[in-house]
Structure to design on (93 residues):
């Protein structure tokens, strides 16, 4: 089962610092989570899974081409633009 050393190890891997009372609380929380998974293991294999509790169907419309917006009007308020496109900051070094 989960002991306090395991909780500290998980916290270290998660790069979070826990106080001693938090370690004890998380130990109990992890114990409850594992107990719940143990309950799930007791489910019989021939039970059909429930994907959604409400009978929903695909409500998407057909994808039909339509009138597009004028490029100049769309870019009129853009702070940064280049060659007819929005320009954003570089995020990859």
């Amino acid at each position: 089962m989960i002991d306090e050393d395991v909780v500290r190890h998980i916290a270290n891997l998660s790069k979070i610092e826990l106080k001693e009372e938090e370690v004890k609380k998380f130990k109990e929380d992890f114990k409850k989570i594992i107990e719940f998974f143990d309950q799930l293991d007791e489910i019989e294999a021939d039970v059909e899974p429930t994907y959604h509790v409400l009978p929903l169907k695909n409500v998407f419309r057909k994808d039909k081409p339509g009138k597009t917006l004028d490029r100049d009007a769309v870019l009129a308020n853009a702070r940064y633009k280049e060659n007819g496109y929005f320009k954003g900051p570089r995020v990859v070094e």
Summary: The radius of gyration is 26 Å. The first helix runs from residue 4 to 13. The longest strand covers residues 81-82.
